[in-house]
Q: What sequence folds into this?
């Protein structure tokens, strides 16, 4: 087929309306099904903590949940921009993406600074540091697949970066679910091990991006 | 006093191309097929000149990458926002497709420098060479649900309503079928690259 014929063929369908609707639906569906799948995996594999009904009255529970929630919101916004060619992210958005981590580490430093030297190890390691990051990464896997699927309805051009931010979004969704299982409440614990779990998910996304997001 | 913008002919030319393309793309997306055709025609000329400069040792591939990029721009046009510079948006897609080509042909093009002259809109070229790959042939290989809507509406020139009446499909099924069919076509092109 000659290029002229291809142009004529494409020009018969100028309006992007169906594509726009479908892309939007696809992104929302990917995000929703990823969240549902990661949450369901947490329920089945780990179960919610038995004292959840009392612990939700503890502000510390919500402070912990705020870290992955804030990361998820900003990663979602950045991810949407990375899904469009030539859309700039800009320094304020990158800063916003880093801010939840900074605040968590500051809180962790304050808690560690105020603790007795002998307690610091326990505050950082808790009882579950060996499994925490691994479980968050594991819970993120269905979200990674679903979020990638949603992004494939758009047109990312920086595939590794788009993959990394999509992976971070999936990791944050997984960490939000993990908060309902995890018994550890000390900020130094979750400011380290939750972050490691989310970053490993981002790393998986960066590796998968160039292959899975190609269009 | 001379207005400042005339001091830089390159910048003025860029602004002119921007206007030329944006007006047609926006009119096209509002449903004006003639304007959209003008957009694609001009875009094809700029892309052809750009690719011939960037691929002096692979001129036989230019028309294939050009068709691939046109299809990519068409399939991604829902990601363009009216406020953004259309040239930057197109440039991002064209560069992405070119880098994708380099990656797929890494060994053969190992010596090519992908940096350097990267201005897409400095020249245009209306003399097509023959494409090596036949997009029409790839179209024939698509499954019926993708191929039929494209053939009825795009090749035979029926309206969506006529195509729906003739095929027994709903109008929205025809529209979605065209959209998905062109994406499937782009995937076939990629698979054969």
A:
């Amino acid at each position: 087929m000659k290029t002229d014929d291809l142009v004529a063929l494409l020009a018969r369908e100028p309006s992007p309306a169906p594509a726009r609707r479908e892309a939007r639906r696809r992104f929302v569906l990917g995000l929703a099904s990823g969240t549902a799948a990661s949450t369901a995996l947490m329920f089945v594999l780990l179960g919610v903590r038995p004292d959840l009904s009392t612990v939700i009255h503890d502000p510390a529970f919500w402070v912990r949940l705020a870290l992955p929630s804030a990361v998820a919101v900003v990663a979602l916004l950045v991810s949407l921009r990375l899904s469009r060619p030539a859309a700039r992210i800009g320094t304020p958005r990158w800063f916003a993406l880093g801010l939840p981590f900074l605040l968590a580490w500051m809180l962790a430093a304050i808690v560690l600074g105020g603790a007795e030297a002998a307690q610091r190890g326990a505050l950082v390691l808790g009882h579950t540091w060996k499994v925490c990051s691994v479980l968050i990464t594991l819970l993120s896997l269905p979200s990674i697949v679903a979020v990638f699927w949603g992004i494939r309805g758009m047109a990312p051009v920086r595939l590794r970066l788009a993959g990394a931010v999509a992976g971070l979004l999936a990791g944050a969704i997984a960490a939000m679910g993990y908060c309902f299982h995890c018994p550890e409440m000390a900020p130094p614990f979750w400011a380290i091990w939750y972050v490691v779990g989310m970053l490993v998910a981002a790393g998986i996304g960066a590796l998968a991006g160039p292959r899975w997001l190609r269009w | 006093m001379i207005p400042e913008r005339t001091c830089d002919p390159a910048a003025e030319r860029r602004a002119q191309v921007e206007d030329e393309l944006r007006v047609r793309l926006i009119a096209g997306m509002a449903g004006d097929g003639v304007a959209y055709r003008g957009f694609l025609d001009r875009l094809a000329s700029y892309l052809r000149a750009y690719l011939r400069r960037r691929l002096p040792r692979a001129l036989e591939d230019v028309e294939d990458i050009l068709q691939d990029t046109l299809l990519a721009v068409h399939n991604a046009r829902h990601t363009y926002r009216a406020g953004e510079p259309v040239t930057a948006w197109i440039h991002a897609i064209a560069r992405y497709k070119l880098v994708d080509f380099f990656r797929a042909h890494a060994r053969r093009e190992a010596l090519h420098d992908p940096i350097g002259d990267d201005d897409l809109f400095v020249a245009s070229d209306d003399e097509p060479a023959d494409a090596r790959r036949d997009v029409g042939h790839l179209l024939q290989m698509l499954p019926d649900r993708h191929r039929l809507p494209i053939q009825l509406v795009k090749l035979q020139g029926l309206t969506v309503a006529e195509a729906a009446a003739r095929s027994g499909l709903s109008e929205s099924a025809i529209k979605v079928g065209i959209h998905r069919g062109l994406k499937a076509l782009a995937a076939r092109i990629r698979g054969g690259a």
Observations:
- DSSP finds nine helices and no strands in chain A.
- Chain A touches chain B through 31 residues (CB under 8 Å).
